[in-house]
Amino acid sequence: MYILFFIISFSASIIGAICGIGGGIIIKPVMDAFGVLDVSVINFLSGCTVLSMTTYSVCKSLIAKDSSINMKLGTPLAIGAAIGGLAGKELFTYVASLFETPNTAGAVQAFILMLITFGTLLYTIKKDSIHTHRVTNLFLCLIIGFILGCISSFLGIGGGPINLVVLYFFFTMGTKEAAQNSLYIILFSQGTSTLRSLFTTNLSQISIFLLAGMVICGILGGIFGRKINKKINEYTVDKLFIGLMIVIIFINIYNIYHFMVI
User: What are the CA-CA distances from residue 27 to residues 23, 133, 158 (Å)?
Assistant: First the structure.
């Protein structure tokens, strides 16, 4: 099972680095579907994997000086996302406390993620015909970042497609530019979220071997994903993204059923 989780983490990190979605939106629902680990444990493992991949990808881009990150917009978005990441963890803890079993909270996460993914899919298909904006106001950037961080942290996905839609719509970014800025935002939101989890998650349930392996796979995925991203065009990235969204929708439909019947 560990080997399978390593493969999932590696593959998800490659796709996450290419599309700018972090990889958690793949790791979280797929690991949920196996039903062998607690929801909070999966959230933590997914978050650590995403954090390792985004740290590598963002730092490598900055060092290589081929980064498309818009620091003027990306930094307030990232700061807002970092604060939102903490708020999202608190929100998940509260929602989970409302139910008798963690599985119900997992079903809520899967349902919301399915709706967001479906909305993202529709937007991506229609984005060429949708009028976009160029937000520059610092306060609005902080608010937008906060909402992104809160949603991503609550769902345990690190970042995901919602980042890209927001960057397309509010900041008129191209696919590859949005991908790099999304990873930058995810780095901050996932960093604070993971730091909080270190103090609130029962780490005794987590295998150090599994955690270390997934983190290494996240870094390796970031290395390969970055290389692939440079070799393909934006049209190919969009098609990969659309196909991924369709797969994730079906995985979440299964997870809703799975969590509600066990």
Answer: 6, 32, 10
Question: What are the sequence ranges of the domains in the chain?
Answer: 2-261
- Distance separating alpha carbons of residues 59 and 183, to the nearest angstrom: 11
* Tokens 């934006």 found at: 234
SS (H, E, C) 243-260: HHHHHHHHHHHHHHHHHH
Split at pLDDT 50, 70, 90, the class of 158 is low
Over the stretch 44-82, which tens digit does the pLDDT of each residue have? 999 999 999 999 999 999 999 988 999 999 999 999 999
Q: Are 91 and 146 in contact (CB under 8 A)?
A: no
Distance CA 54, CA 85 (A): 15
C-alpha distances in Å from residue 255, one per residue of 108, 172, 249: 10, 34, 10
